[in-house]
Write a structure and sequence with these properties.
This protein is about 80% helix and about 0% strand. By secondary structure, it is an all-alpha fold. It is elongated, with a radius of gyration of 44 Å. Kinesin is a microtubule-associated force-producing protein that play a role in organelle transport. Oligomeric complex composed of two heavy chains and two light chains. This is Kinesin light chain.
């Protein structure tokens, strides 16, 4: 029944009730008259009583209908109220979903910020525990350390020399990280090189679209599960990592890992490279426990494929040691660093820069454990080796800088007018040979001296580090000036067209 039909029924029922009420009154009057008469007719009285019963029954049923209608109206009103409430709850649910999405985005951004702050906190706590500089010295050292200091770097790259944290990833690192163990096909080489060039220059607005276009083209021609697709995924992931887009980079690296495992096999060097990149990414986010098994698996693959004494195995050991160091697993850290040192010295020789870097990293591990004597011995070993490479064997007249510093410390009370460091020889020039490792070692050993109260020795090493930095900058400036002067000479002396064309080519390069 429709709402209109129900109202008509109720209206008619009320009319019938009025009629029944009137009949009831008439029957009551009729019964009274029959009762008062001298002669009562039993049959008539019986008929009137039956009619009265029927009238009463009709009235009762009509009242039930009216009451039922009223109850239905109440139910309908409650139903409308509930519908309104449900609609309002749906609207609130949509609003809460939007708020949740926004909050989740803020949470992700906060997690990234927290990870970066945790890295900075550990960095600062370590530096504060070993040295205190004056304000000017501290600012300069912090700037230098943020660029090149491999000792306190949270998780350095493993493929080439230490990464400059103030600039994008260099081109050779992009190539090594993305393509280790896999040769880039000729059809991709030009595009691949363009992406690397733009990314290394920080021109992400160009590099990212190029990568995405290459991925789209490759997936159309070769399908998603192809080694070339994995290579481009690796490159794009490194670009995202340089932009601090860690979540996007992790998704791409996991995708690349799946493809390479499926197409190249689970024990391929390219799989190890992708595992290592993923471990480095987790390390940068502070997820050391998640990164460690990936790093260990990459180490196992490289040991099986390259042999346990290959330099790439030593690089993987360095990364694994850094992960364990951030988890305070110092016994494992020492084991990994010492094994990496054995490989470098056996395969590359004691003068290889990686030996000095690993010695510095091992010294950093000792410092975190409070083993200052062991750390001091390693720092002195690095400086002694650098001195011998530059100036020959050590003797009474040919002393490494740390011996000079300690002699100045011993003689500071005897001679207040200590000879300026420059007159002890040009050892600080040798610091450029292994920069930034030697310069870092100078500052770290100087910090230890300062902690021990050997301020004269500390000043000597810190002055040496500063001179090295200053002279390196001066040499760069001088080389630029000499280059311009040389070009001017060539232009003035040369009379032919070939000299001018050659100069223009050099400028464009």
């Amino acid at each position: 029944m429709t709402q209109m039909a129900q109202e008509e029924i109720v209206s008619n029922t009320k009319t019938v009730m009025q009629g029944l009420e009137a009949l009831r009154v008439e029957h009551i009057t009729l019964m009274n008259n029959l009762s008062e008469g001298s002669k009562t007719d039993p049959d008539k009285m019986e008929i009137v009583k039956k009619n009265m019963e029927n009238i009463e029954l009709g009235l009762s049923e009509a009242q039930v209908i009216v009451m039922l209608f009223a109850h239905l109206q109440n139910i309908e009103a409650e139903k409308q109220k509930l519908r309104t409430q449900v609609k309002r709850l749906c609207q609130e649910n949509v609003w809460l979903r939007d708020e949740l999405a926004i909050t989740q985005q803020k949470l992700q951004a906060s997690e990234q910020s927290v990870a970066q702050l945790e890295e900075e906190k550990k960095h600062l706590e370590f530096m504060a525990s070993v040295k205190k500089y004056d304000e000017i010295q501290e600012n300069e050292d912090n700037l230098e350390k943020s660029r090149t200091d491999p000792v306190v770097e949270l998780f350095p790259e493993d493929e080439t020399e230490e990464r400059n944290n103030m600039s994008p990833t260099p081109p050779n690192q992009f190539a090594n990280h993305a393509n280790a163990g896999y040769e880039i096909p000729a059809r991709l080489r030009t595009l691949h090189n363009l992406v690397i060039q733009y990314a290394s220059q920080g021109r992400y607005e160009v590099a990212v679209p190029l990568c995405k276009q290459a991925l789209e083209d490759l997936e159309k021609t070769s399908g998603h599960d192809h080694p070339d697709v994995a290579t481009m995924l690796n490159i794009l992931a490194l670009v995202y990592r340089d932009q601090n887009k860690y979540k996007e980079a992790a998704n791409l690296l996991n995708d690349a890992l799946t493809i390479r495992e499926k197409t190249l096999g689970e024990n391929h060097p390219a799989v190890a490279a992708t595992l290592n990149n993923l471990a480095v990414l987790y390390g940068k986010r502070g997820k050391y426990k998640d990164a460690e098994p990936l790093c260990k698996r990459a180490l196992e693959i490289r040991e099986n494929v390259l042999g346990k004494s290959h330099p790439d195995v030593a690089k993987q050991l360095n990364n694994l040691a850094l992960l364990c160091q951030n988890q305070a697993k110092y016994e494992e850290v020492e084991m990994y660093y010492k094994r990496a040192l054995e490989i470098y010295e056996m395969k590359l020789g004691g003068d290889d820069p990686n030996v000095a870097k690993t010695l510095n990293n091992l010294a950093s591990c000792y410092l975190k454990q409070g083993k200052y004597k062991e750390a001091e011995m390693l720092y002195k070993e690095v400086l002694t080796r650098a001195h011998e490479r530059e100036f020959g064997a050590i003797n009474g007249e040919n002393k490494p800088i740390w011996q000079v510093a300690e002699e100045r410390e011993e003689n500071k009370l005897k001679n207040r007018e200590n000879t300026p460091y420059g007159e002890y020889g040009g050892w600080h020039k040798a610091a450029k040979v292994d920069s930034p490792t030697v310069t870092t070692t100078l500052k770290n050993l100087g910090a230890l001296y300062r902690r021990q109260g050997k301020y004269e020795a500390a000043d000597t090493l810190e002055d040496c580090a500063l001179r090295s930095k200053k002279e390196a900058l001066d040499l760069v400036k001088q080389s630029k000036v000499l280059g311009v002067a040389d070009d001017n000479k060539r232009q003035k002396s040369g009379s032919g067209k070939d000299d001018i064309d050659d100069h223009n080519k050099r400028v464009h390069k």
